[in-house]
Amino acid sequence: MFASLHTSTMTVRRVESRGTFAPSAANLLKGLRLALTAYEQRRVLSRMDAFMLADIGLTADEAAIEAARPFWDVPATWRNAC
User: Fold this and answer.
1) What 3-state class would DSSP assign to 24?
2) pLDDT > 90 fraction of the chain, expressed in percent and rounded
3) Do the Cβ atoms of 46 and 67 come closer than 8 Å?
C-alpha cells in the first residue's frame, strides 16, 4: 500500500510542477509582446534605405526576406530569454 501511495503522490507532484496544458495569461501576453516587437522591427527594417541597411550589415534582399516573415515567427532565443 505504501509504495502505490508514494508513487501516486510523486506522479501528482510531477504533473503539478509541469503546470497545465492551457497557456496562462502571462504566457499569452509574453507571446503577444514578442509578436508585436517582431512586427515593429520588421516594419522599420522594410523602410530602411540602402545606406542604413549597409550600416547594419544587410543587403536589400536579406532585409526584404526578413521583413516578409510573419509576425508570429520570432527567433527561439527570444522565446527562451523571457
Assistant:
1) coil
2) 39
3) yes
Cβ atoms within 10 Å of 63's Cβ, excluding its own: 19
Please compute Rg for the chain using Cα positions: 22
Length, in residues, of the chain? 82
User: Residue 52's pLDDT is what?
Assistant: 96
pLDDT at 71 over 80: yes
DSSP state of 23: P
Residue-by-residue DSSP string for 16-71: HHH--SSPPHHHHHHHHHHHHHHHHHHHHHHT--HHHHHHTT--HHHHHHHHHS-T
Alpha-carbon span 70 to 29, nearest angstrom: 18
Query: Which grid coordinates are listed for 28?
Result: 499569452
pTM of the entire structure?
0.62
- Name the grid cell of 40: 515593429
Angle between helices 60-68 and 25-46 (to 10 degrees): 150
